[in-house]
Structure formats: structure tokens, C-alpha cells
Amino acid sequence: MSKKTIILAIESSCDDTAAAILEDKKTLSNVVANQEIHQQYGGVVPELASRAHQQNIIPVVDTAIKRAKIRKQDIDAIAFTKGPGLLGSLLVGSSFAKSFAMGMDIPFIAVNHMQAHILAHFIDKGKQIPSFPFLCLTVSGGHTQIVKIDSPSKMQVIGTTLDDAAGEAFDKSAKILGFPYPGGPLIDKYAKGGNIHAFTFGKPKIKDLDFSFSGLKTSILYTTQAEIKENPNFIAENKEDLCASIQHAIVIILIDKLTKAIKQTGITQIAIAGGVSANSYLRNQLKVLARKENYKLFIPKFEYCTDNAAMIAIAGYYKYLDKDFANQTETPSARLLF
Ligand code: KG4
Ligand code: ZN
Predict the structure, then answer these.
(1) What mean pLDDT is predicted for residues 185-201?
(2) What integer pLDDT is reported at residue 305 of this predicted model?
(3) What is the CATH number of the domain that holds 114?
(4) How far apart, in whole angstroms, are the C-alpha atoms of residue 240 and residue 164?
(5) CB of residue 85 inside a 6 A radius of ligand 1
(6) Which helix H or strand E contains 131, and what residues bound it?
(7) Does ligand 1 come within 6 angstroms of the Cβ of 194?
(8) Is the pLDDT of residue 125 over 80?
(9) What is the pLDDT of residue 1?
(10) CA-based radius of gyration for the chain
């Protein structure tokens, strides 16, 4: 049997410092250090994020190697996030990866963060994986895309947001309700006891497969401001209904466009990826749709939805098989496209 490939991966595109080790497609360790410093500012502060990455990166990598029960010398290649993301944050990960590769004399591999979110579907799996081509709704704090995937190295964005991302829509709505950052998971939590039809908000009219969330955010802001004038306790008294209605409005926008993409392409294998794919209502609504229409649905494990380095490692593994290596002149790219 041929030797298995051991990849160390680093993810530092935003506010999580992460390292993971995969042996072929199997996770040996997956470590994430969250940066709590940003909560008090209501969003990620780029300068603080890069400083925290600097502090976290060595302990996080050290923990990943120890948990994987391997030696540094066993690592065949190091993969890192080239972009998109915050430049200062990306620089910490890419500089670390370059030095590590040079010191250990192993290849290093540049990975696109958004493609990695999609390839997370292939981690730790046996036969329960999508076959090509499939469609993926990639929904995170920075992106909202519908992607057609023909192979691990051939992907095409067929729809994207024209303004805010779905995660931003969750987080900005949560901020209006007075929740700390990131508010998406809190909306998910409080929505469980609420009525999805209690409030209705403006629906975007965007053509093709593109999305828009900025109008929804304004509609939520005006509705709450008007209600607060009448009743200063409006938000506290209607928290669950507001969360359920906001969540429903965001999820309907996503599902409408995904349904349109399925109809247009004729592809009925669908996947979701990115932080917002952790949302329980989105997951449930997609399950209902898939059952009704006989689509094949793939939902990643919870720990591979939000930012993590295991997804960077699996993307790196496919590039390793193609010998698609970077060289020491490689630089991160904040606005990296596919
Ligand atoms: O993919 P991710 O971890 O980081 C980016 O690359 O942006 O996504 C983070 C986003 C945040 O906007 C967060 O609020 C959202 O994912 N998120 C959720 C949930 N869990 C994370 N949004 C709604 N419901 C959730 N359960
Ligand atoms: Zn992400």
C-alpha cells in the first residue's frame, strides 16, 4: 500500500487561528483558537485580529501536532489560506507556512478559503460524498455564493451577493437587536421559540442567481425603530418572534436562489458550506426541500461549517496530489477570486 500523505494546514483569514493535520482525507487533529477580543467591538477589528494570530499561531500548531500524535518530520506538506480574508491576518499564516516549509524542506500549498469551505464535504467521509458535478451554497460572514463544482480543482461561481453576505445579514440584524458579535448563532438560538410569520420584511428583487441583503437589513432597522417609538421594550418583549422572522427572511432568500440554480443547471446534488450552514433553520428547510423534490443533500459536520483548518488541509491534499505547489514568492490576496 502506498504511503499516506500527512498535511499540516493553517487557517488565519479572519478572527480564528486554526491548525489541522490530515492523513490523506482523515482528520488527525483540528484545533481552533477563537479571538474573543472582538466581541466588545461588535465586529472583527483587523489590527487586533493580526496581533492575536501572532500570539496564537505557534501554540495552535504545536497543539495540532501533539493531538495528531505525529512528529514534525512526518509532515509531507504545509497548506495555508492565501485568501480571501483580512490581509494582516493572512500574512501571519502565510509567513508561518513559508518559514515552516523552508525549515523542514517540504512543499507548501496555497489554498482558496472559499473553495476549502466546499471541499470540507470530503473530510473523514466514506461513500457519503457528493459526486461531480454538484452545486454548493457557500454562505459565510464574508461571502454568499452558489458554486458549480466539476472537480476539486474546477469550480465556477454562478451566483453571488451584490452587497452584504448572508452571515453579515445575520450579524447586522443581531446588532440591531442588541446582541453581541457574532450574532448569527444567537438569532438561531432565540428563533427556536418564535413565530416566523410574526413580522414581514422587504424582499429583494434581484435577477439571475445573485443575492442582496442590504434592503432586508434596512427594513429590519426601520421596523424595529418604529416599534420602539411606541414601546421602548419592543425588542425584549418580541425577541423570539423577531429572530424567527429575520431568520426566515434570510433563509427564504437563500433557498429561492438555490432552487432557481437547480432548475437552471439541472443539477440535483446540493451541498451547503460556510459558517451560516451551521444554521439549524437553513438545514431543516433544505432537508424538507430535498425530501420533497428528491434532491440529494449534503450537509457538513458542524465543526467543518465555520472557519477551521481541516478544510484547508483537504483542499491542500487535492493540490498535493496534483503537485500544485506554491513557491517562496507567493503572497496572500485579500480579494482572491476562484
Ligand atoms: O465561515 P465563517 O466561520 O467565517 C467567514 O469566513 O466569514 O462564517 C462566520 C459567519 C458569521 O457571520 C456567523 O454569524 C455565521 O457564520 N454563523 C451563523 C451560525 N453560526 C455561524 N449564522 C446563523 N446561524 C448560525 N447557527
Ligand atoms: Zn469562512
Answers:
(1) 97
(2) 92
(3) 3.30.420.40
(4) 24
(5) no
(6) none
(7) no
(8) no
(9) 59
(10) 20
